[in-house]
């Protein structure tokens, strides 16, 4: 599953037409994380190393590719499944969804999920989830910043697609520049972050789509994006 | 506007009598950020560089001057206006206020606003705002930590001034030491932060106002602040 | 009090049977922080240095020892008492509890409490607490991540013990590895954090209790923990 996700992301990321990725699941479980049968000592240490390296690679890839990645969650997201939720850029969840890091119950503390979850929710919320393994509701996940929006199950797809369509409408290179800059500046101190972001604003303005958007705004018309990284002529 | 704000802050920051700054606006818009007409390619790259450098300077200045800076928001705060909100120490907003980073809609991703907003609200909230440009309500801004308090419009001034007056009542050098220490220790790791803050506590206790406050508390009377950085005599 | 807390934590941390620490108080005050009489200039600068060093040591010790530390709060937690709350891994509070950093009112800004509180609640919430000294309710403390759960006073002990018992049930070395890894990876950048945590997952799987938990799950039975750091045989 992780390999398939990794390959899909990498192959699609090369496509010029890709604007947004939505990760969803069939059935009542969004993702329950690793298959524990793969983690018995019979599989061997090298296999374990590979599983967790691939997992971390997928989770960081989600943030490092140029298009926004959304999760549409309708059910249970646990362990690495909860890590997947925490790693996505935007998460829309149905009211019945729940989120947990129950690894402690099977003697395998959710330390890799904690990397993503600890950077998404307040520390005390993360620690209670990790130490007890108890699930939190969609409402609490929203309260604590683990998901972006909670909607009734029958409106989940509609609400998710509305956001996805808004993203698809925007200029692809502008979104890509914005996403890459967000994650890189957030890893810096405030002053270095402003130096990075100010430089990007000037680059963004030099893009053809940067100038088209501003001209369209001033002329009170819809912009016509080139979706290219071409520089503006004038 | 940015230049004027910068000059006002810098000139006032020299005043011994300054205790707090409250930024507010007339009309239904708190601030809608940059004037897009200044950002066309006709203005030239050097002008763009200067605009964003001045902007970052104002935003960091707000946090680096010795007095608390409050925003009193009664309306729309978008793009660099939302960045201004996120950069203030304390923000009181009326219920009708809304907050957005709609740059993506005009082909100019709100990358500099994201520096302040990404350090203020959970990452998923910031990314949904940035990728969709959709506004969030005052209620959601409070929920996610973008504002400190939300009040009915007819109580906005009263509530803001009550907090401002509390700050004015306190010893100026004690507040200045506290504000500077807060931002400097927050940029450090936990153990370095404790080393910084522990040292400051001892310095604070050596201030005349540090000792006056404690004596007044023990003697159950109101303190009489010197508002100076003089050391205590005894 | 700080010395006594430090000695208790250090002596108990050596005990093999220790699984969780719950800090609580008798009476309507959880903790009101430092005794201001210890902080007059008559006590001398060296004494002040020692007080704040011991305080920082206790607060960091809470996070650095191998067992989870919980606070059960039923009343007022102010200044270093609020810092203690912010430093614990999990905090259960009764509805009537309040939290404040009122040092500014006695001329001693809560700069050391701000180290823990600034890492626990949104920056604007922390700054309003620090600049005004005004208390926040248990409800707002939950909203902003300062506490993990708020319950009616008559259910405080029951709810706290339920979580403590869940922690006691788990494998001690698995919990210890998880806690240590959480705090160490949170101090790193994302990619370094994943390298740390992925390595720990593989170590965790090599533990006897790591394999026992997974086997028990697959065999649909309760795990029997060794609570030792022994490696799995097979």
Automatic annotation (TrEMBL), chains A, B, C:
It is found in: Mitochondrion. Pfam families: ECH_1. It comes from the Eukaryota. GO terms for cellular component: mitochondrion. Keywords: Fatty acid metabolism, Lipid metabolism, Mitochondrion, Transit peptide. The keyword Mitochondrion applies. GO terms for biological process: fatty acid metabolic process. InterPro entries: ClpP/crotonase-like_dom_sf, Enoyl-CoA_hydra/iso, Enoyl-CoA_hydra_C, Mitochondrial_ECH-domain. One of its GO terms (molecular function) is hydro-lyase activity. Belongs to the enoyl-CoA hydratase/isomerase family. PANTHER family: ENOYL-COA HYDRATASE DOMAIN-CONTAINING PROTEIN 3, MITOCHONDRIAL, PTHR43602. This is Enoyl-CoA hydratase domain-containing protein 3, mitochondrial.
């Amino acid at each position: 599953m992780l390999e398939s996700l990794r390959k899909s992301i990498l192959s699609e990321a090369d496509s010029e037409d890709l604007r947004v990725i939505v990760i969803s699941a069939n059935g009542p479980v969004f993702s329950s994380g690793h298959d524990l049968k793969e983690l018995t000592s019979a599989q061997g240490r090298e296999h374990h190393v590979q599983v967790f390296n691939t997992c971390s690679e997928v989770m960081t890839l989600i943030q490092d590719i140029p298009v926004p990645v959304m999760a549409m969650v309708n059910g249970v997201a646990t362990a690495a499944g909860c890590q997947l939720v925490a790693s996505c850029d935007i998460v829309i969840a149905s009211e019945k969804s729940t989120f947990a890091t129950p690894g402690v119950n099977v003697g395998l503390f959710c330390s890799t999920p904690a990397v993503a979850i600890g950077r998404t929710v307040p520390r005390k919320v993360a620690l209670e989830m990790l130490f007890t393994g108890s699930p939190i509701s969609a409402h609490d996940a929203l309260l604590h910043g683990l998901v972006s929006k909670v909607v009734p199950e029958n409106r989940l797809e509609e609400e998710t697609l509305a956001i996805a369509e808004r993203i698809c409408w925007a200029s692809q290179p502008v979104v890509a520049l914005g996403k890459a800059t967000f994650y890189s500046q957030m890893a810096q101190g405030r002053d270095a972050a402003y130096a990075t972001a100010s430089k990007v604003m000037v680059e963004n303005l030099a893009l053809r789509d940067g100038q088209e958007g501003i001209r369209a705004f001033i002329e009170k018309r819809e912009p016509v994006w080139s979706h290219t990284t071409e520089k503006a002529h004038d």
